[in-house]
Design goal:
39% of the residues lie in helices and 15% in strands. The relative contact order is 0.07. The strands form 3 sheets. The chain has an 8-stranded parallel β-sheet with strand order 7-6-5-4-3-2-1-8. Strands 9-10-11-12-13-14-15-16 form an 8-stranded parallel beta barrel, surrounded by 7 helices. The protein has 706 residues and is α/β, with parallel strands linked by helices.
């Protein structure tokens, strides 16, 4: 039962919403009725893990399949089982405003502590509609409300829109589940001092430590009951410490990293299979393996197949903590494991495709290493390559690796690593290329590169557009590629058209590479200033950028000044510097080390011009716009394209305010300075802080003369 009055909701939330909160599934009986006994069992089980509170009838609780009577039945069951001994939240979003208000009243009457509200789906298309809808529900209840920001409801609210929502008196915070790291970070920085912001994934804690904010509650996810047992609640322990400001990455790596990678793989794979719906089938099956009640999912979702469940169990069982007997512990001293209930007879089944990280999630240049076989892939991974790129150098010019090799590399390289596929020089046949691109997505490639040598522009554009359509809802990124030496070939497509082609071909990014094998490299065909302008133009358009083409260590300073998102190499990391020899992990590690020295600024490839010590001292670093014509863009932890795009957007609608950009990566600093100079903006001051960050004060060019 809520112990606060409406005007006290925010203070109550700051004091109460802490640590780990869970999301409950709705279990069903074999005849597809709500399993109230199973729901009670699940509440007791999750409470035994040390979880502080839980929410019911959310997306994972299949609220969209429940009748209004069933939603109330679930609420009643959870409230009765919690009986004031456990914090509870109820999700009350509905397409009908009147029904949302009715559900809110029911939850308040049954003693829930707070409500969860999301956009009224189907017809809600603007942020103004969402704010108005939430305000009317909030006005009708005394309970605190957390807003649920998720694309599952058909609209993702911007950080500025979330700030408006949190200005409603009893909207105390946001579950920021947009699956967009930049939105999450900006929301923490913009709103986090006034309201509780919770991103339901562990990646947020290192970012918080880096950027100076704190997330005090994990509100809420299913990881507690999928990863933990009552005897070994490692996930809950980690979250409790992290939300208190004590981030223990060693503990996470020791107890949770592997099982989280498995979770990401199955989570993403099931979302692909369902066209983007949350993976309720995976979570229900996984939960049953951990002793939870689940049952089948309701239409239009479908359960995992028997083979899929068998495969999940075969991958999950070795990773689970076990309350072992002395005899068992002696037989497997390095790991403790607990058996799931009633699933030991399963046979190994077919594998599923897994999730992979987004190329845009990484800050600063990443190292791509091209490999031709599994041993080389393992060498590249051991050396610290960020992206393992599968290609075939034996085909004419360059071609694609065999699908079996791509499948094996994707299965054996850790789930959190990028694995890309190079199709090489493709034919001018949109349907054929689209089929190959679709296959790369089925093999769970992070990205697929489509390259053009001899082609006309319109055909290349059409090939890329067909490829984009073939990717559908896949997370695989489409990368268009031209070769810097194309003009050596009769009918070669001009590489200077790369940015235009990537944009009009609906690509996620581009790669400039070379084909010649006569000792010349990328810079022999396209000079640094040309490449830098191309990369900058692409970043302003939000495209990822990659450069390759017989690059060596001697080219690192030039590359660092250009600062593409990705640097691709092969020969430079082979055992003798010969691209026809095998990749060697020691060479990969050394190249990566040299790249990092330039990213961190320890090797200064271009000293910042006009650095002014001291500066004006203004800037809270929280990303807010100030009333006195002063806007702060916090670029720490963001990739360069995101920073440049944010600066460009700010300039588009406001050329009167000063802009203070906060940067950390040395190469991103160079890019921002270069961008400002090229656009004619005035750099007033550059001030370096003790923590290595640089604050750059920019006056838009419209006011420069003043």
């Amino acid at each position: 039962m809520a112990s606060y009055r409406k005007h006290e909701a925010q203070d109550w939330a700051w004091q109460t919403l802490k640590g780990q909160w869970t999301t409950l599934v709705t279990p069903f009986t074999p005849d597809n009725q709500v399993d109230t006994a199973g729901m009670r069992h699940n509440v007791l089980h999750v409470r035994s893990l040390g979880v502080r509170g839980g929410g019911c009838t959310w997306n994972m609780g299949e609220f969209w399949s429940l009748t209004e009577a069933e939603r109330r039945l679930v609420m009643d069951t959870v409230a009765d089982e919690a009986a004031g001994r456990w914090l509870t939240g109820a999700h009350v979003t509905h397409t009908s405003l009147r029904e949302s208000i009715s559900l809110a009243h029911h939850a308040q009457d049954r003693g829930f502590d707070l409500l969860i509200i999301a956009p009224s789906y189907m017809v809600t298309k603007t942020e103004d509609q969402v704010v108005d809808f939430v305000r009317q529900v909030a006005d009708s209840t005394d309970l605190a409300m957390m807003f649920y920001n998720s694309p599952q409801f058909g609209i993702t609210i911007s950080p500025q829109g979330l700030k408006r929502l949190c200005a409603i008196p009893n909207v105390v915070g946001v579950k920021e589940a947009s699956f967009n790291q930049q939105i999450s970070i900006e929301t923490h920085l913009l709103v986090g001092r006034d309201a509780i912001i919770s991103t339901p994934d562990e990646w947020i804690f290192p970012k918080a430590q880096q950027l100076g904010f704190r997330q005090q509650v994990m509100f809420a996810n299913t990881s507690d009951w999928r990863f933990d047992t009552p005897e070994h609640n490692y996930y809950v322990q980690f979250i409790e410490q992290a939300t208190a400001g004590n981030l223990d990455t060693d503990f996470y790596d020791r107890h949770l990293k592997d099982i989280k990678a498995l979770s990401d793989k199955w989570w993403g794979g099931n979302m692909k299979k369902s066209g983007g719906a949350l993976p309720v089938p995976v979570c229900k099956a996984w939960g049953e393996m951990m002793g939870m009640a689940g049952g089948s999912v309701r239409a239009p979702l479908s359960d995992l197949t028997a083979d899929e469940k068998a495969q999940l169990w075969s991958e999950l069982e070795p990773l689970l903590p076990r309350a072992a007997t002395p005899a068992v512990a002696a037989s497997i001293p390095s790991r403790e494991v607990i058996r799931g209930r009633s699933h030991a007879p399963w046979l190994a089944g077919n594998g599923t495709r897994g999730a992979h990280p987004d190329l845009a999630d990484s800050a600063g240049m990443m190292l791509l290493v091209s490999v031709q076989n599994m041993p080389e892939a393992l060498e590249a991974d051991r050396g610290g390559a960020d992206i393992i790129d599968v290609k075939n150098l034996q085909e004419a010019l360059v071609g694609s690796g065999h699908p079996n090799l791509v499948r094996e590399v994707r299965q054996r390289i850790p789930a959190h690593k990028h694995v890309s596929v190079t199709l090489g020089v493709v034919p001018n046949q949109p349907g054929t290329v689209a089929m190959a691109v679709h296959a790369a997505a089925l093999l769970d490639a992070t990205s697929v590169k489509v390259g053009f040598q001899v082609s006309d522009y319109d055909t290349a554009r059409d090939v890329l557009r067909e490829s984009r359509e073939a990717l559908g809802n896949s997370e695989t990124k489409l990368i268009g590629s031209l070769f810097a030496d194309n003009l050596l070939f009769e009918g070669g497509l001009d590489p200077h058209l790369m940015v235009k082609l990537a944009k009009e071909g609906h690509c996620d990014g581009f790669l400039i590479d070379t084909l010649t094998k006569d000792g010349r490299n990328l810079f022999d065909f396209m000079p640094e200033p040309v490449l830098r302008d191309m990369v900058m133009e692409a970043k302003q358009a939000g495209l990822s950028t990659a450069l390759s083409g017989h690059l060596k260590l001697d080219n690192l300073d030039e590359l660092a000044r250009i600062n593409p998102d990705i640097v691709g190499v092969r020969g430079a990391v082979c055992s003798t510097g010969d691209r026809d020899r095998a990749v060697a992990w020691e060479a990969v590690a050394y190249f990566k080390e040299q790249l990092e020295l330039r990213k961190t600024g320890q090797i200064d490839v271009r000293a910042p011009a006009g650095v002014t010590p001291g500066g004006n001292g203004n800037g809270s670093g929280n990303g807010r716009s100030h009333d006195a014509g002063w806007t702060i863009i916090d670029g720490r932890g963001k990739n360069c394209a995101g920073v440049i795009a944010a600066l460009s957007r700010q300039m588009e609608y406001d050329r009167t305010s000063f802009i203070e950009a906060i940067l950390h990566d040395a190469l991103n600093i160079y890019d921002v300075v270069y961008w400002a100079e090229q656009a004619g903006h005035r750099l007033l001051t550059q001030r370096k802080e003790n923590d290595g960050t640089l604050r750059v004060l920019i006056q838009p060019h419209a006011n420069a003369a003043h």
